[in-house]
């Protein structure tokens, strides 16, 4: 299963340079995801260094430095050559988040940041969750946009500006919990950068025994 439109969006020659540069130029904004990933891994990952940690989609490697604090050499996977071209690490793989080239339960931790809110259908969301749960033997951290946040509400009622053709989707935590449950996982925790306000949030999950 693929979201073709999504891949096109990230496949422009300039995508990598934009993402590695102006997109997260604001230091405060750039720090939110790494901080949440660090705090969740510190809480749920076992003793470090972990053997195998996957960052999918890794984009231009924004989380690479954070993941290096938990494993010697994080693996990054992304569909876009342009994004991977701006990623400094050696362990980069081009591929699909929906068909990950790893055996079942072979990764000690998996991070999936800023992909879920681009998915348009429940089918795609469940497929992604199912694939992450298949390969993970430890905590799986996935970001999502929280529909119950103040920013999501402002966006819904038109008070918050959105770009043309912006189709990013916020979901409710109860729905997310249900999809995780039906794909064989369980929720360990939800984490927000600013609870109740910001849309960007993380869920930590694991495969049920
Ligand atoms: C918003 S960026 C996030 C990148 C990175 N996780 C971060 O937070 O900086 C979304 C990324 O998803 C990648 N992507 C989109 N569809 C994908 C797919 N089906 N499989 C793997 N990567 C995909 C894009 O190439 C892009 O790099």
Report on the structure:
The chain has 209 residues and is α/β, with parallel strands linked by helices. The protein has one domain: Vaccinia Virus protein VP39 (Rossmann fold, 3-Layer(aba) Sandwich). It has eight helices and seven strands. It has helices spanning 4-10, 15-20, 27-44, 64-67, 81-85, 122-135, 150-156, 173-182, and strands at 53-55, 75-78, 92-94, 109-112, 140-145, 185-192, 200-207. The chain has a seven-stranded mixed sheet, with helices on both faces. Helix 6 links the parallel strand 4 and strand 5. The mean pLDDT is 90. S-adenosylmethionine is lined by residues 2, 6-7, 10, 33, 57-59, 62, 78-80, 83, 96-98, 113-115.
Overview in brief:
The chain contains eight helices and seven strands, in the order αααβαβαββαβααββ.
Features:
single chain, 209 residues, alpha/beta, Rossmann fold, seven-stranded mixed beta sheet, binds S-adenosylmethionine
Count every beta strand, where a strand is a DSSP E run of 2 or more residues: 7
Alpha-beta content class = alpha/beta
Number of helical elements: 8
Oligomer designation = single chain
What is the rounded distance between the termini?
Answer: 26 Å
Q: Judging from the principal axes of the Cα atoms, what is the shape?
A: globular
Which hetero ligands occur in this complex?
S-adenosylmethionine
State the CATH architecture: 3-Layer(aba) Sandwich
Q: How do the SSEs run, as a string of H and E?
A: HHHEHEHEEHEHHEE
Low-confidence stretches: none
Order of strands across the biggest sheet?
3-2-1-4-5-7-6
- CATH uppermost class: Alpha Beta
CATH superfamily: Vaccinia Virus protein VP39
> For the report, how would you describe the main beta sheet?
7 strands, mixed
Arithmetic mean pLDDT: 90
Could you say what the CATH topology is called?
Rossmann fold
Share in helix: 25-40%
Strand content: 15-25%
Radius of gyration: 16 Å
Domain module count: 1
């Amino acid at each position: 299963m693929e979201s073709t439109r999504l891949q096109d969006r990230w496949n422009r020659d300039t995508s990598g340079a934009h993402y590695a540069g102006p997109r997260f130029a604001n230091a405060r904004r750039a720090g939110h995801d790494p901080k949440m990933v660090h705090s969740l891994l510190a809480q749920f990952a076992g003793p470090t260094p972990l053997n195998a940690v996957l960052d999918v989609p890794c984009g231009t490697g924004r989380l690479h430095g954070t993941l290096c604090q938990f494993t010697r050499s994080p693996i990054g996977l992304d569909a876009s050559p342009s994004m991977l071209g701006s990623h400094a690490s050696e362990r980069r793989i081009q591929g699909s988040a929906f068909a990950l080239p790893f055996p079942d339960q072979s990764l000690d931790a998996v991070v999936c940041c800023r992909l879920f809110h681009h998915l348009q259908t429940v089918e795609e969301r469940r497929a992604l969750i199912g694939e992450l749960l298949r390969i993970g033997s430890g905590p799986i951290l996935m970001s999502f946009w929280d529909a119950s946040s103040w920013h999501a509400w402002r966006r819904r009622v038109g008070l918050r500006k959105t770009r043309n053709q912006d189709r990013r989707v916020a979901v409710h935590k109860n729905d997310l919990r249900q999809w995780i449950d039906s794909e064989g996982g369980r929720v360990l925790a939800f984490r927000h950068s600013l609870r109740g306000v910001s849309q960007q949030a993380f869920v930590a999950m694991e495969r049920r025994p």
